[in-house]
Specification:
Elements (H helix, E strand, L loop, with lengths): L1 E6 L8 E6 L4 E6 L4 E2 L3 E7 L14 E9 L2 E5 L8 E6 L2 E5 L2 H7 L11 H5 L12 E3 L5 E5 L3 E4 L5 E4 L10 H19 L9 E5 L5 H11 L4 E5 L14 H7 L2 E5 L13 H4 L14 H4 L2 E5 L3 H5 L21 H7 L2 E4 L8 H8 L16 H8 L25 H4 L2 H12 L7 H30 L24 H9 L8
Helix pairs in contact: 4-11
Amino acid sequence: MHFEYSAIETLPRLAWCARVVKGRPGVRVEHGPWVEANARFFFEGAWAGEFAAGDPAGAAACLGSGGVLEGEGLLFVTPTHMLERLHAVRRGDELFVSNSLAFVLARVGDSCDTGYKFYHFDLMSNMKGLGRYRRSIGTRDGKRVRLYHHCNLLVRPDLTCEERPKRIPREFDDFDDYTKFLRETTRGVHRNVSAPDRKVRYEPLATISSGYDSPACALFAKEIGCREAVTFGKARPGYESSDDSGREIAEVIGLKVTEFEREAYLGLPGFPEAEFLACGTGGEEVVFAPLEKHLGGKLFFTGYLGDAVWGRSARGVNRELRMLYPGGSSFGEFRLRAGFVHFPLPAIGYINHPSINAISNAAEMSRWAVGGDYDRPIPRRLLEEQGVARHLFGQHKMAVTQPLWNTERLDQFFTAHSYDDLKGFAAAVPLFGSGFERARFGLMRRLYELNLRVNWKLDALARRIGRSKSERPLVSERYSQPLGLSALTFHWGLEKVLPRYGPGA
């Protein structure tokens, strides 16, 4: 097999779509102008390894996606975190694979099914981890889009596919061993993004807040030469404190900081929410839309997954890469267009969570344990050992992102232009196909609520007797929300994004 590249300047900078035809040696790869492409591999993003070696599939940390020629076929590579995925669609003797859901649908001339209202629940199943995420979704024309997280996908010339596991890093012995791994991995990624034979090189940029995770990640970014950070001044309403600025922390650790307002996206033209919603994972990273000019060409450090990885509770310990919420999963289309590499540092090595959790609860970490539900000794130790005063961070749990999928108050969280357009789109799409469908949904909603109440009681009983219970509800989570305008936000977002990929092949 060999690659036949088609670089298209009008595509999003980091988007790509590969077309494999059964029995044909040439693999056509359409891609944006910043995708790295040579005879042996193509890739957008970076990995912890030498760029010239061209082995993202063997890296313990892979931040991006692409394809590598192997002796028996073509190996597609996903990120090693669960925040983004690959998409594959079979059409006769052709297989299309892309890092963009919209791109792969455009190439097969298809779209989502407006009669199906549960895409958000399917696509946000990445939160459930490797063993339970939804493996495919249906389309308007009856095709299936296969979804791939945290694996390497071998496609042979006859179009047979085989998932291959990612390389698993070693277990961690103690705090020094774990932070050494994070430091070495960060340096490896930085060497990769700075390689002289790259088409595009990336400079580090950190996020910083008043919490635990992003300030700790900013320390690792600073070690590789990061000089700047971005922060949001206020958290979203509903938290004990609204001040989430990381400005004071940035000054202590020596970073120049630029502060943004979390609702600044509401003043943007066009439909800023659409590309975040088109990922199907809630759209909450829309607050980053005004940072577009700051993010292009950056290795962007964030603290996503810190809550799952660095907390002390043993209840969530897993090797499945589970997430507590879908934060960080909606960057996809925006990231590909703006052109940055997302580095959610806590996700690196998360597959060995039992050893990380043991470190968080080790006797050596007791000086940095403050008790309560919001207690993360690993990032606290990292920051306090660098001179950040205890009272400056990790005092209250807050968040700045804005979920867009599970609320009927969309008029408050959409620009007026977007909200009017969404209402116009929804006016042509009935929420239920029939009276029977409406009645069935209502019944399932009541059963879900009953199941939820029973589960609460079982959970309380299990805790009292020191046992664990199954996390799987008897009734699907798709019935946890009433069907309303928000059920169509993914469909609307995808419709807005599809045209950027042009007509199908």
